[in-house]
UniProtKB/TrEMBL annotation:
GO terms for cellular component: methionyl glutamyl tRNA synthetase complex. The lineage of its organism: Eukaryota, Fungi, Dikarya, Basidiomycota, Agaricomycotina. Pfam families: Arc1p_N_like, tRNA_bind. PANTHER family: AMINOACYL TRNA SYNTHASE COMPLEX-INTERACTING MULTIFUNCTIONAL PROTEIN 1, TRNA-AMINOACYLATION COFACTOR ARC1 FAMILY MEMBER. Residues 137-149 have a biased composition (Basic and acidic residues). Residues 156-182 have a biased composition (Low complexity). This is tRNA-binding domain-containing protein. It comes from Hebeloma cylindrosporum.
């Protein structure tokens, strides 16, 4: 199915707007084959009679939380089709109703402001007139903070009984089958190997992807290229069993030891549905740390709104078609070919010293601004610059 044939299935005047913006369906179809399929898929959804309904709008609002554009990370025909399909519905919403779907409202307002959409819409009369939203009057989001749970102290057992568990455990261990013992030993060896890999700055496969210069001396002045950033892919995520605000993720970083366990405090800011199968940027050479009983072997790089956490937190996204383990580096001759430290020494506070310069630009591109020279060094891979979905002027950590 081609983009042009899919567009022709749209109802009027949606079809006319999409054809006008895309110049008869010959443009804005996606820069890659995978993107093109996504674009066609979303245009096809816009042809369906029930695409705009109360339930579907709520689902779309959830989908759009981390996104600027619906199909890819750039403007496409899918955005024109979705905007045009939404217009009759959104135009009838009262403030309280469009406040209830803030991501849809933000997205709709962004697409209607696109110059090509506005120019083409003018030729279609009142069908796609510009809508105004009272965003200043939107209610502030309420975040409930649960009181910490008090742990009940177990009653003390008599002295004779206190030795029983140890004796029981000893008996249980001695009665374990050889197969179970061998399985436990293999699991322990795998965890030790993963910890050694994390502390050494990556596996032999990923080490070759780092810069070509000799490793930087640990006692040198802190610079961002000392930080080992890589593309990661969340292959599994659950809520921490003993901490309501933490996720425990398994992140594929392209290492032969398998995914790393990473603990992130994002439960109250990013829904778990938006974490699953996500590509991100990870800080890989921090010293592993215990987080409420679970050892974390990396850190997820996030953008925090300039208004603070209550204004939103988003995962920094690598360019399209990134692969786990892709090297992430800072633009500039001083940094591009530098080799990160094997592990950041917590006492040197290298990350803490460099971090205040991390920011998202007006383009939402992630960058480090040198505090001394004010030079801008974008954070990128060989495929392109890493970005935040929506946040501008956000700090990164």
């Amino acid at each position: 199915m081609s983009l042009q044939s899919t567009i022709l299935k749209l109802n009027s005047p949606i079809k006319e707007l999409v054809l006008a913006v895309t110049r008869d369906g010959k443009e804005l179809g996606g820069e890659t084959e995978a993107d093109a399929k996504e674009v066609i898929g979303w245009v096809d959804k816009a042809t369906q009679a029930d695409f705009v309904s109360e339930n579907n709008i709520k689902d779309l609002d959830t989908i759009l939380i981390p996104k600027t554009y619906v199909a890819t990370n750039y403007f496409t025909a899918a955005d024109v089709a979705v905007y045009a399909a939404l217009h009759p519905f959104v135009s009838k919403l009262q403030p309280s109703e469009y406040y209830a779907v803030p991501s849809v409202t933000r997205y709709f307002d962004h697409i209607q402001s696109n110059p090509s959409v506005r120019t083409s819409a003018q030729g279609l009369g009142e069908s796609f007139k510009t809508l105004s939203f009272d965003l200043e009057g939107a209610p502030k989001p309420e975040r409930k903070v649960e009181a910490p749970k008090k742990k009940e102290k177990a009653p003390k057992a008599p002295a004779a009984e206190q030795t029983a568990p140890a004796a029981s455990a000893s008996k249980e261990t001695s009665s374990s089958s050889p197969a179970n013992q061998e399985k436990a030993q293999k699991k322990e060896k795998k965890e030790k190997k993963k910890e050694v890999t994390a502390e050494a700055g990556g596996s032999k496969d990923t080490a070759g992807k780092k810069g070509g210069k000799a490793p930087q001396p640990e006692d040198a002045e802190p610079v961002p290229s000392m930080i080992d950033l890589r593309v990661g892919h969340i292959v599994d995520v659950i809520k921490h069993p003993d901490a309501d605000g933490l996720y425990v993720e398994q992140i594929d970083l392209g290492e032969d030891t398998g995914p790393r366990t990473v603990v992130s405090g994002l439960v109250n800011y990013i829904p778990i549905e938006q974490m699953r199968d996500k590509y991100l940027v990870a800080v890989c050479n921090l010293k592993p740390a215990n987080m409420r009983g679970v050892k974390s072997f990396a850190m997820v790089l996030c953008a925090t709104s300039k208004e603070g956490k209550e204004g939103g937190i988003e995962l920094i996204q690598p360019p399209a078609n990134s692969k786990p383990g892709d090297r992430v580096y800072f633009e500039g001759s001083d940094f591009e070919d530098a080799t990160p430290l094997a592990q950041l020494n917590p006492k040197k506070k290298i990350f803490e010293t460099v971090q205040p310069g991390f920011i998202t630009l007006d383009s939402r591109e992630a960058a480090w601004i040198n505090p001394a020279t004010k030079s801008v060094h974008k954070i990128r891979t060989a495929k392109g610059v890493c970005t935040a979905p929506t946040l501008v002027g956000a700090s990164l950590s």
